Amino acid sequence: MEGLNNFWKKFANCIVIPQRYLLGVMTGFAILNAYTMRVSLSMAITEMVVKQNESMSNDSDACPIMEEHSYVTVKNTDLLYDWDEMIQGHILGSFFWGYIITHIPGAIIAEKVGAKHVLGVGMILNGILTLASPTIIQVTRGDWVVLVLLRFVEGLGQGPVYPAVTTILGQWIPAREHGAISSIAYAGALMGTVFTNSLSGVLITAVANWDIVFYFFGSLGLVWNIAWQLLCYSYPRTHPCLKGKEKEYLDKELATHVNTGKLKTPWKAILTSFKVWALIIGQFGHDWGWFTMVTDLPKYMNAVLRFNVQENGFWSSFPYFFMWASTVGAGYLADWVINNKYLKIGMTRKILATVGTMGPAIFMVLASYVGCRRILAVVMFTIALFLMGFYYPGMKINALDLSPNFAGSIMALMNGIGVFAGMAVPVVVGVLAPNQTLSEWRMVFWVSFIVFAVTNVVYVGGMSGEIQPWNESNVPPEEAKE
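Above: the chain's sequence. Below: its structure in token form.
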């Protein structure tokens, strides 16, 4: 053990960036890999189903098929399955049935024993199941019930990801750096979507088979896990490579509100806090719009705008790159505004959250009114997702503001309840857009607009940027009133 510690101390001298920033990058890659394994099916499913060209041709609003558009990329018809829109909705939504179950248990375990291994175990499970997915689908001859069960188990593995990431950030990241480092971590979801959508189409076209996306992204998840186990630790105090200057800085900055002991989670205070519930409701609204885009935008690009799979992959991923840039940029902007005392934490979060919800709401609806002007539609979606990036420093990191010690538990609640949006959206899209027509999709986007608007009003009216009294769980509930 002493030899291993000496090795890591020597290795630490080669790491130029501070360990807390390395942790931010690695948690960002964790979320990136989680999203590649989650979202890969959304791209692949457009090439896994028997195409319903007849219903498309009967749509008076249908966009013309471009000459170079190919509806059939997968040549082996044995690998095409007769799943209608309702079945596809259940398949895409089933991931979240498992995802919701392990949120709170994952947060509790991460807060009690450390987040490193909780995150690692969940990602290993997902990597293995993603690699096994093509074999299972083919052996069962496309039995969609089996695929629903498989995605359910994958969801169980990914449920602890966000609570574990938030727990470890709460233990490592000082308040003055919440916006920047947390945005780098959470922006992994966006780069995961860019990575998946852009590469999936290229990979499927190259091999004329959809199974390649599962093998590729499943392997990446396992490779990340090796690096995670070697480089990252749950707490600064257990890291053998933490340099003296950074250790002193973290000891000073985290001493006030981050407890290094084992605290009892104050569930009563958390569950009766209106500020927490305002955050949960705001998160639900964001998730509704987010899952509409991330789960079903590839289907819109394919069925309505008639992009082929390679074009679909590129244009579906294009907006998320700009969302990633705005997320990271807005995170640094939030820290700059707060640290220079131009605005208080709460007001900064409210402004950024409103931009990050109402901006996408408006431009998603506008995209449905540009008709078949494909590039203009992509521009509308790009602006929508660019503005959505402001949500992360405006709302997502608010759990760290409220309680650094129990941010994982708050994240489990907000992300867990937000999962109901992920479960509902594919089914709602299947009901509202059974024929995948432009007019049907316009209704889908209007529903998202209403959800965005209502939940943003609740969040802005009820949120807080201040650390809550129950952050120290030894404070009696009657003394921890807000």
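Confidence is low (pLDDT under 50) at residues 475-482.
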